[in-house]
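Incident review: delayed structure delivery

Summary: a single-chain prediction request sat in the queue longer than the usual turnaround. Root cause was a stuck worker, restarted by the on-call engineer. No data loss occurred. The affected request and its eventual output are reproduced below so the record is complete for anyone auditing the incident later.

Affected input:
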Amino acid sequence: MNGIRRAATYMVLALCAMVLSVAPAQKSQYAGTNLNFIVVSDQFSAALEALAPIFQEQTGINLRVTVLGYGELYQRAIADFIGHTAQADLYSTDIVWSCQFAENGYLTDLASLIKQDAAELDLDDIPTVMWTTGSCGEQQIAFPLVGYAGVLAYNKAAFDAAGIAVPKTVAELAAAAQALTKDGKAGIVMNGQRGTPAAQDWMFYMLMNGGTILGPDGKPALNSPINVETLELYADLFKYAPDGAVSYAWGERVTSFSEGSSMMMVDWSAGLDYLREGAVPVSGSAAITTTPVREGLDPVYPFGGWGVGINADSPSQGAAWEFIKWLSSPEVQKQYVELGGKPIRHSTLTDPDLVAKYPFLSTILEVVEHGDGDFRPRITQYSQIEDAVGLAVNLVVTGQESAQAALDAAQATVAPLFQ
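Output delivered after worker restart:
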């Protein structure tokens, strides 16, 4: 089945690429230049692979796309930057790497280029939150590549059968999880696996409940009362999750929802395969909405994503910038989305053809308009914070520690990093 689906996917990619290839060729002054682009393995990577030969045809610039796993990409990039080996000209960069890469001078600051080409880039068409995918202070070390919305995926058939409304508040989410846990089905599914899976999933709930990683002074506030309360809530929800969810990461979580075993999950809009007709057992019953928020709070939603940055050591800066401008252009963005990419432009999110085909874009637009790209702080110490939080969450959901004790320990671990 996977082989058939993969073949069908590449057939669609090829057809979309053919449509784009009819655009008139505009050979570049950098024609003949070779560019290497290392990109993370994600839903949008196949779209970039499909677009590469079209960019080459139109500009004469040779673009090679290499797809690597998350950890492998990070290690490869760091080795390249530290060694000044210029193995790649372009890198996809996770939003949470922004300040680490900026402060070390790993990537070219694009701010002056963006200002220079502002009219061509039509900057007003790019929502403000999109720039958090590659900004640190005054620096813009990556251009928006994909924007991810934090959403609540839910089984609408199960909600209809139970006669309950889709939750808008955190309290309603907990009540729905309890009500939908019956007949061998789980009301909700979360990540419990120690490390990044548990940390990032819990941070969604932290934002939903009004918590923050950093306090008003810019220092860690992991053990704040609201964060302790949120971790207690998060652990309590595991009563309504599938057996074994304490070891789940993203793959297991999505599988549980997609197979119809779990009725809700908070998720990134990275994949959304479960919304595609006939893709998985839950297709036809699955829907998404904005994440619930604590009663009385203004709507603020999780936002994440990836940028594309130019290696500061690249000898082909001009050609690399030309690719970024080409990829971000409105006409290419529409095809990018058709190929599986995620939109960075308001005009793409509201394009009538795309909205008719992908109705969920209206939900993503709402998240983008009220998105928080800093709920996972884009600071150099983020990876250590994530490690500490990921351990704390796992210890609590597995019953080994209280929320207060676990977050006190996490706070004690990371506080010295800010002295």
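Verification: The chain has a mean pLDDT of 93.
Action items: add queue-age alerting; document worker restart procedure.
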